[in-house]
Specification:
Three copies of one chain form a homotrimer. By secondary structure, chain A is α+β, with helices and mostly antiparallel strands. Chain A has two helices and seven strands; from the N terminus they run E-H-E-E-H-E-E-E-E. Chain A has a domain of about 70 residues: Alpha-Beta Plaits. The first copy, chain A, has a four-stranded antiparallel β-sheet, covered by helices on one side. The first copy, chain A, has a two-stranded antiparallel sheet with strand order 4-5. Chain A is elongated. The interface between A and B is medium-sized, with 21 and 28 residues. Strand 6 of chain A pairs antiparallel with strand 7 of chain C. The complex binds nickel (II) ion (3 copies). The site of one nickel (II) ion (NI) has 3 residues of chain A, from loops.
């Protein structure tokens, strides 16, 4: 068995949790902070069979992969004059660590 | 040494923490959520010698093992008429993952 | 790659987080409790290359090592009569577990 630690942005965490549990994976969710600004994110701990690790990673990737989004931005080009235009920002992203489990017990 | 991740229900977490520390184990406690409903539970991280893993698992099991409990329930059997009867529910339960520690430092 | 779990006292956690991130380590921070009194502490999860583990441990140690501090204390030596004197207390301290990572993904 493998223990998977997956760190995803808070924006994506409920989608990731929903899909992992609906695909019958046992998931534990932690409120964490991280990155340069120690912003809120979510860490999932998932214990699973060796041959299901690819599926877990695929599900997490599908719902949290780094992607660009167009968001409205604005700039002033004179006193009291503004223009609005879309700007590309990066959102999402997941960091995943897989560790070997030596022993597993369900009591 | 081994690193033990143990997920127990919140109902049992203070008993488990109390007994692990009174038996001199070094315990770190995390507030987590999990299961189908992402309900609150508790994850313990315990670092211990290889030959103490069985004792840790025994202590956790003794205080959090899955068990049935009779709880009062009620049903209506007519307009404004209720009957109360006991219902068996499952409580507790622990999921335990044991991982090998390559290096341990106490600074 | 290695996964490092480091438990430090809350007093030292922001210094440790700041230095780890400024040295370009990827850090996830968890609010945890631990020790005999289940007092608040902080657990860091750090994924890093094998040859950087020593550097991570050195940074954590530099900013959280167990040390003594003189704090003011007071005792009464008669009805309504007090004396103030310094007392040595232990502060800080870090517990570090290093675990092998079998697979690492950044999505
Ligand atoms: Ni799905
Ligand atoms: Ni006991
Ligand atoms: Ni530094």
């Amino acid at each position: 068995m493998k223990l998977i630690f997956a760190i995803v942005s808070n924006d994506d965490s409920s989608k990731v949790a929903k899909h992992l549990t609906s695909h019958k994976f046992s998931v534990t969710k932690l409120a964490t902070t991280g990155g340069f600004l120690m912003a809120g994110n979510t860490t999932f701990i998932i214990g699973t069979e060796d041959d299901k690790v690819d599926e877990v990673i695929a599900i997490i990737g599908r719902h949290s992969k780094k992607r660009t989004q167009m968001v409205p931005s604005s700039a002033s080009y004179g006193v009291g004059m503004y223009t609005s235009f879309p700007v590309e920002v990066q959102v999402g992203g997941a960091t995943i660590f897989v560790v070997d489990i030596e022993r597993f017990e369900k009591l």
